[in-house]
């Protein structure tokens, strides 16, 4: 990865920009060969192993908090009626195979391999598909590279390229997965902390449920206020706590197994699953809405890839989380077999009285940690959505100089905090929150299975038999779970649907408005011939200085420039039309970040700033101007070298330097929609909603670090 990030010369950059895809690949290969590093030594390998183990330890506090604390609320969320020994053995068998198949096989072994340059989540899967087949609506250089190859496209890939309905459905599925994951970020803190704090009522019966809810809300508020310090610092505080929880709960489980039911592990046999459903029928099917919670938080293994790495997540799950959960659930089940009516408090009841208070403290602290995994994943997903223009711009803060995926958003953080507190205070019943939680968990898993199957077929070219086997096993398994949890929608399951619907409406309204805006700009764009005509007007005066004029489209200029020129009647000596281009890749190498070019007119240049959805707009204003002007000068030199002429080379470079010294200004359009009377009802309402969102979101320009005194906004109305 470090080799890929090494900067090339500007001359090589121009070759990459102008040559064909085949020659582009050749130049990149030369760059890698010329910048190759020696093979790692044994000492280096040993250091890397220790570093991976240390990162695996840190994942305990961020990635696995929600998953490993699930024993707090799984049994209490089940509506068991006079359970028998056979029932408990069947439930444990279901949980064991759910953890093994979904947790160990699907997420830890397969899903983590489907990262998009280190980033995970449903949008990463969608990005992989967009770069392999022509289904994305955003520009992507790597999509072009793929189209230049002679690789034969799969039939499924051709189907998506040719079907507009299929492409829209695929986008909707990716958006729904993101919305459900954000809903998960609301419910995980609520149910984890509430379930842990409920343990205080056993030794103090006088404490009412209301006080437990208030105390839980206070704890969550404190947790959200800590988020601004970043994932690394939070992980440093929380990983020891989660390590203590991961170690102590299986020890209690082993003690419970020995004391109550030593033969509990016979339930590993799938025979007990078939017996369970044969005996209980519909009631057994309905109980699946509770057992699915044993795997809650497993999607964070995939969504949090940007915060850590694949190896560390796999090591932590295989050697700590998975055995800890199996032993803990086995111990709980062993206790409940001997005490069948204690399932409503299935965790604290099976804790020996001698260690009750230490375990209460550890479980409360672990529940706080559990909230962190989905909060971090929510920040990552929101950042990806903002970068791809599917979500209104919010403030994104990078909290680490080493891990680019560690981000924090103040607006999102406080909205999550309010929603979590509201869920606890309004829906204090743990069973209702558990029902809502089950809906989120199953929907996210089902969406991941669907998208991952498409990645297998279209991107990985997995043999059809293996892809079909994966899809059938997990889609059927998760589909049965979904059918069960959907029966709980009236009993609290509607909460995540309401949250997801609101988020989806915001995303659709923003996306629709951005598309209409882009449509107007492309229809009324200024091409090079018209630009030449405008600049040839004798009434236009050229003034000293360097102007960066920001435009959203790459093939021409936005109508804002014509509006500006018509009213100002002047233009700087050097003008650089600058486009911020987000690509459907996670990260753009630094040598491809800024691409400068001459547009064929005196003093008129173009500049494209490329960013992936996991990159940070971290350029400072002065550095940005310096990089662009250096790129322009190198570009001009290359053009004159190709023409084998130096007649006006020095003059043109001197003009650029002189304009930079005279002063730099950044001009951007501030556009609004003017809704005509002929617009449809749908257009009027959606555009009005977009205007509300646009008026309250952040500007993209300050993210470059450009001083506000150097910025000018040109207002213009687009008629729709």
UniProtKB/TrEMBL annotation:
Subcellular location: Cell membrane; Membrane
Transmembrane spans: 55-75, 87-105, 169-191, 211-229, 236-258, 284-303, 315-335, 355-375, 412-430, 436-460, 467-487, 493-512
InterPro entries, A to Z: K+_transporter, K_trans_C, K_trans_N
Bilayer topology annotation: Multi-pass membrane protein
Main localization of the protein described in the UniProt heading: membrane
Residues in K+ potassium transporter C-terminal domain copies: 544-719
Signal sequence coordinates: none
Keywords: Ion transport, Membrane, Potassium, Potassium transport, Transmembrane, Transmembrane helix, Transport
Domain K+ potassium transporter integral membrane residue range list: 56-531
UniProt keyword DNA repair present: no
Pfam families named among the record's database cross-references: K_trans, K_trans_C
Protein's job: Potassium transporter.
Family (UniProt): Belongs to the HAK/KUP transporter (TC 2.A.72.3) family.
Stored PANTHER family: OSMOTIC STRESS POTASSIUM TRANSPORTER, POTASSIUM TRANSPORTER 17-RELATED
Protein name according to UniProt: Potassium transporter
Source organism of this protein record: Coffea arabica (Arabian coffee)
Upper taxonomic lineage: Eukaryota, Viridiplantae, Streptophyta, Embryophyta, Tracheophyta
């Amino acid at each position: 990865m470090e080799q890929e990030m090494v900067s090339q010369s500007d001359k090589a950059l121009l070759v990459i920009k102008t040559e064909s895809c085949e020659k582009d690949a050749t130049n990149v290969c030369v760059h890698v060969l010329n910048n190759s590093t020696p093979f790692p030594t044994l000492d280096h390998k040993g250091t890397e192993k220790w570093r991976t183990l240390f990162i695996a330890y840190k994942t305990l506090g961020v990635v696995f908090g929600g998953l490993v604390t699930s024993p707090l609320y799984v049994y209490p969320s089940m509506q068991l009626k006079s359970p028998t020994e056979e029932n408990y053995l069947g439930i444990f068998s279901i949980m064991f195979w759910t953890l093994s198949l979904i947790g160990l096989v699907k997420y830890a072994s397969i899903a983590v391999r489907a990262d998009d340059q280190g980033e995970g989540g449903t949008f990463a899967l969608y990005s992989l598909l967009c770069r392999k087949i022509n289904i994305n609506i955003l520009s992507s250089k790597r999509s072009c590279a793929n189209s230049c190859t002679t690789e034969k496209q799969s039939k499924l890939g051709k189907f998506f390229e040719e079907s507009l309905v299929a492409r829209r459905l695929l986008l909707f599925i990716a958006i729904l997965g993101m919305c459900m994951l954000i809903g998960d970020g609301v419910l995980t803190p609520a149910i984890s902390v509430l379930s842990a704090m409920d343990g205080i009522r056993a030794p103090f019966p006088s404490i009412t449920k209301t006080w437990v809810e208030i105390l839980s809300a206070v704890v969550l508020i404190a947790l959200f206020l800590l988020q601004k310090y970043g994932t690394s610092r939070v992980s440093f505080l929380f990983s020891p706590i989660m390590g203590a929880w991961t170690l102590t709960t299986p020890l209690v489980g082993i003690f419970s197994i020995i004391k109550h039911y030593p033969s509990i592990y016979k339930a590993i046999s799938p025979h007990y699953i078939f017996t369970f459903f044969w005996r209980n029928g519909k009631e057994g099917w309905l109980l699946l809405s509770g057992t699915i919670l044993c795997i809650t938080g497993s999607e964070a293994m995939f969504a949090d890839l940007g915060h850590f790495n694949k190896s560390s997540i796999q090591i932590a799950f295989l050697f700590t989380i998975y055995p800890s959960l199996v032993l803990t659930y086995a111990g709980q089940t062993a206790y409940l077999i001997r005490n069948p009516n204690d399932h409503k408090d299935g965790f604290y009841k099976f804790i020996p009285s001698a260690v009750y208070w230490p375990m209460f403290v550890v479980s409360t602290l672990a529940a706080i940690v559990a909230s962190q995994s989905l909060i971090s994943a929510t920040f990552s997903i929101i950042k990806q959505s903002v970068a791809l223009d599917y979500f209104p711009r919010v403030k994104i803060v990078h909290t680490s100089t080493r891990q680019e995926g560690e981000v924090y958003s103040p607006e999102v953080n406080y909205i999550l905090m309010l929603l979590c507190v509201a869920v606890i205070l309004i829906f204090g019943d743990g069973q209702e929150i558990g029902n809502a939680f089950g809906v989120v968990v199953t929907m996210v898993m089902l969406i991941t299975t669907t998208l991952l199957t498409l990645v297998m077929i279209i991107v990985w070219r997995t043999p059809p038999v293996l892809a079909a086997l994966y899809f059938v096993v997990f889609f059927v398994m998760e589909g049965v779970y979904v059918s069960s949890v959907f029966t709980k929608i009236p009993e609290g399951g509607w909460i995540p649907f309401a949250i997801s619907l609101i988020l989806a409406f915001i995303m659709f309204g923003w996306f629709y408005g951005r598309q209409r805006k882009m449509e107007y700009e492309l229809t009324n764009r200024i091409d090079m011939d018209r630009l030449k005509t405008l600049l040839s007007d004798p009434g236009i005066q050229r003034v000293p200085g360097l102007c960066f004029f920001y435009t959203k489209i790459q093939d021409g200029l936005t109508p804002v420039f014509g509006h500006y020129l018509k009213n100002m009647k002047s233009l700087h000596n050097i003008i650089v039309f600058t486009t911020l281009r987000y690509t459907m890749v996670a990260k753009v190498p630094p040598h491809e970040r800024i691409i400068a070019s001459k547009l064929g007119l005196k003093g008129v240049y173009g500049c494209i700033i490329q960013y992936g959805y996991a990159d940070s707009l971290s350029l400072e204003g002065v550095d940005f101007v310096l990089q662009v002007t250096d790129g322009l000068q190198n570009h001009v030199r290359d053009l004159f070298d190709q023409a084998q002429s130096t007649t006006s080379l020095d003059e043109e470079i001197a003009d650029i330097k002189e304009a930079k010294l005279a002063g730099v200004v950044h001009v951007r359009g501030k556009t609004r929609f003017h809704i005509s009377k002929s617009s449809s009802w749908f257009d009027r309402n959606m555009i009005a909603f977009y205007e509300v969102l646009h008026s309250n979101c952040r500007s993209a320009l300050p993210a470059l670090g450009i001083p506000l005194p150097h910025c000018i906004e040109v207002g213009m109305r687009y008629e729709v």
